[in-house]
Structure formats: C-alpha cells, structure tokens
C-alpha cells in the first residue's frame, strides 16, 4: 500500500502526538509520585531513579508484548509480570542510591538521552498541532 506524502505526515503526526502525551503522563506520574513519597525515596536522585524506572518499565513492557503474542494471558500473569518489573525497578533504585559510581553512570546516560529532547519536544508539539488542526478543520 502506498501513501501520499500528506498522508504519511498525518500518520507521523498522530504517532508523535500520542508519544508526546504518553511521555507527559509518565513524567507527571513520576513527579507526583516523588511528591507523595518521602524525600529520600525518589526526590533525591530523581534523574537517575526516574531513568531506571522508565528503563525497567520500557524493557518489561516490550518483553511483555513479545510474550503476549496474539493471545491475552490471564490477569495473574499480568500482575506477576508487573510485580517483577516493580521489584526490579525498586531493587535497582535502592542499589543505585548506595553505589555512587552507579549513580554517576546512570546520570551520564540520562544526560546523553536529553539530547534527543531537542528533536522530540518540537516534533511532539508540531504533531499535537497537526492532529488538533486535522480534527478541528477536517473532522
């Protein structure tokens, strides 16, 4: 199936808009969680702990989707999978809290990923604008 350039830009805009909203919700969730938890748990070292939480969550979601295949498993399998991901994230956050060399490595990696924000944020805002325009004036 072949798409025109305008259709491809529309598809890309929807993809970027969804990814931007998803990222904003994740970020707001992490910030709210850090406000609710005691200061030492997530607020101190937010950059590397947030990076670990997002990394473990992303990898586990990708693995879970691969595990799913075409069938939806039972709820207890999902809760087991989610519990393991949470346990791994908490264990890595606790470990990184006490091992300062690991903190330095994680902060360095997280800082390198922020370079992508210079592309991702403008493309996300543009995607949201295109999606809003298409839904308001062509809907």
Q: Could you explain how this protein is built, in words?
A:
By secondary structure, this protein is mainly alpha-helical. It has one domain. Helix content is 85%, strand content 0%. The protein contains 6 helices and no strands. α1 (5-36) packs across α6, α3 crosses α5 and α4 crosses α5 (100-113). The radius of gyration is 19 Å and the shape is globular. The mean pLDDT is 89.
How many structural domains in the coordinates?
1
Quick one: how many beta strands? 0
Largest sheet: none
Distance between the termini: 24 Å
Q: Low-confidence spans: pLDDT under 50, at least 5 residues?
A: none
Secondary structural class = mainly alpha
Helix content: over 70%
Shape: globular
Overall average pLDDT: 89
Helix count equals 6
Tell me the Rg in angstroms: 19 Å
Oligomer: single chain
Estimated share of beta-strand residues:
under 5%
How would you spell out the order of helices and strands? HHHHHH
């Amino acid at each position: 199936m072949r798409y025109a350039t305008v259709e491809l830009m529309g598809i890309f805009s929807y993809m970027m808009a969804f990814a931007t909203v998803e990222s904003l919700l994740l970020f707001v969730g992490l910030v709210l969680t850090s406000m609710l938890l005691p200061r030492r748990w997530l607020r101190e070292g937010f950059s590397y702990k947030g990076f670990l939480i997002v990394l473990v969550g992303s990898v586990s979601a990708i693995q879970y989707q691969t595990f799913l295949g075409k069938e939806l498993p039972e709820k207890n399998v999902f809760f087991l999978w989610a519990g393991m991901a949470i346990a791994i994230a908490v264990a890595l956050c606790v470990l990184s809290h006490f091992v300062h060399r690991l903190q330095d490595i994680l902060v360095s990696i997280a800082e390198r990923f922020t370079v992508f924000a210079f592309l991702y944020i403008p493309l996300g805002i543009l995607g949201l604008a295109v999606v809003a325009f298409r839904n308001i004036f062509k809907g």
